[in-house]
Amino acid sequence: MTATLMEAATYDRHGPATEVLRVVEIERPEPGPGEVRVRMRLSGVNPTDWKARAGSTPRPIDGFQIPQHDGVGVIDAVGAGVDAGRVGQRVWTFLAAAGNRWGTAAQWSVVPSRQAVPLPDGASDELGACLGVPAMTAHRCLFADSSVDGTNVLVAGGAGAVGHFAIELARFSGARVATTVSGPQKAELARQAGADLVVNYHDADAADQLRGFAAQMDRIVELALGANLELDLSLSGPGTHIVDYAAEPHDPVLPVRRCMNANVTLRFVLLYGVPAAAMDQAAADVTRALQAGALTALPIIRFPLDEIVAAHEAVERGAVGKVVVEIP
């Protein structure tokens, strides 16, 4: 491989991982105005990555696409208008592949400077690779409607990546946090994240356990609105914000009268449309939490770059923990 080439995972059409993903040698990108180039170390895989690749949430492909938004690496070049002092910074990335062919599943990625965030010295590469989509989504769910200091927060799916960071960011910001999980392994992960109450949602008395924690939740971070809306409304009242960040295969039927009676507020979050100022605030707040040691990594499941297909398939199967791709 020559000095101007790099290894990268790419796809040029949508479809199953085994059919469209391949690892190839391509020209190393150069940063344009306002951009930085990052020599990647680890690349995190999220559900949005495989959904984009599969075509279930299709995005235009500009000749080819390197997948994955999240990762950690070191800036080695900057474009016009970017402080040259950024060269050598260890950074974590967010939304690297949004409207950009240079995702993080490659030896180099090029992103707008603001989307490469300095990683504090005390934070590991593994943690840096886990941030991006999950931590920024968790932040938006929690703080789009004001502070959570002194409030009661319910996080659905507290062992998932978004749920994990929602628990930690809420606790760091002064909230009491309850969470729901599906079994003992996930319950232990949620406890390690700092949840004050962990409830198995299969328990017959799950709602009673949650009402014993708080008669009304102020914020509910939700990933399955249709499946959980009955429970959520039973814990809601004026001032409750139910914030959903994931879509189910079938759209739920909304019980409008019950929502009105509860005076509940419904919000939906998809990072691609969140205003830039809110994203920048999220990055700053995540950095502050990192500096305080308030954020931790989920168990890491590693794949080498040449096993990118297996990495995507693991996330599609719902692997417990965080799948990352090691960049050579």
Quick recap of the structure?
With 328 residues, the protein is α/β, with parallel strands linked by helices. The protein has helices spanning 17-20, 47-54, 125-130, 132-143, 161-172, 184-193, 206-213, 225-234, 256-262, 276-291, 308-316, and strands at residues 5-10, 22-27, 35-44, 70-78, 90-93, 108-112, 116-118, 152-156, 176-181, 197-200, 219-222, 241-244, 265-268, 300-304, 322-326.
Structural account:
Strands 3, 4, 5, 6, 7, 14 and 15 form a seven-stranded mixed sheet that branches. This protein folds into two domains: 5-131 and 295-326, Quinone Oxidoreductase, Chain A, domain 1; 138-272, 3-Layer(aba) Sandwich (Rossmann fold), CATH 3.40.50.720. The protein contains eleven helices and 15 strands. With 328 residues, it is an alpha/beta fold.
Question: What descriptors fit this protein?
Answer:
single chain; 328 residues; alpha/beta; Quinone Oxidoreductase, Chain A, domain 1; Rossmann fold; 2 domains; 7-stranded mixed β-sheet; 6-stranded parallel β-sheet; 11 helices; 24% strand
